[in-house]
Amino acid sequence: MKHSLTPETAARFAELALGHVTREYPHKLDHVMDGPEDVLGPRALHPIFFGSFDWHSCVHGYWLLLTVRRLYPDLSVCGRIETLADEMLVPEKVAEERDYLLRAYSGGFERPYGWAWLLALHREAARHRDREWGDVLAPLAGDFAERFRLFLPKLTYSIRTGTHFNTAFALILALDWAEEHDSALAALVRERAAEYYGADRGCPGWEPGGDDFLSSAMIEALCMKRVLAPARFRIWFDAFLPDIAAGEPASLFTPATVSDRSDGKIAHLDGFNLSRAWCWRGIADALEPDMAARALATAEAHLDASLPHVAGDYMGEHWLATFALLALGIDAAPREG
Question: Is 70 within a domain?
Answer without folding.
Answer: yes
